[in-house]
Amino acid sequence: MTTVIIYTTPTCTYCRATKEFFKKHNVDFQEIDAAADRKAAQMIVEKTGQLGVPVTIITKDDKEEVVLGFDQPKLADILGVSL
């Protein structure tokens, strides 16, 4: 099973683009607003060393992948979808 969590903020253009990418490819995802959730924002810094969004965490076959920004090729590769 694949779990996709995307950390976003309301004004982030790349966050919207990433969510549209998921919708276009029928990828179920959970969205967490890092602007409203301080613990989520802190977790982003711990995992990536920065506070930029979007941050997507994909867990597949017990392996966690962290994708910074709207990296379409990396997202497509991890999720097994075509661009």
UniProtKB/TrEMBL annotation:
InterPro entries, alphabetized: Glutaredoxin (IPR002109), Grx-like_ET (IPR051548), Thioredoxin-like_sf (IPR036249)
Entry's Gene Ontology molecular function annotations: electron transfer activity
Pfam family, one: Glutaredoxin
GO-annotated biological processes: cell redox homeostasis
Domain of life: Bacteria
Limits of the Glutaredoxin domain: 4-58
Protein's recorded name: NrdH-redoxin
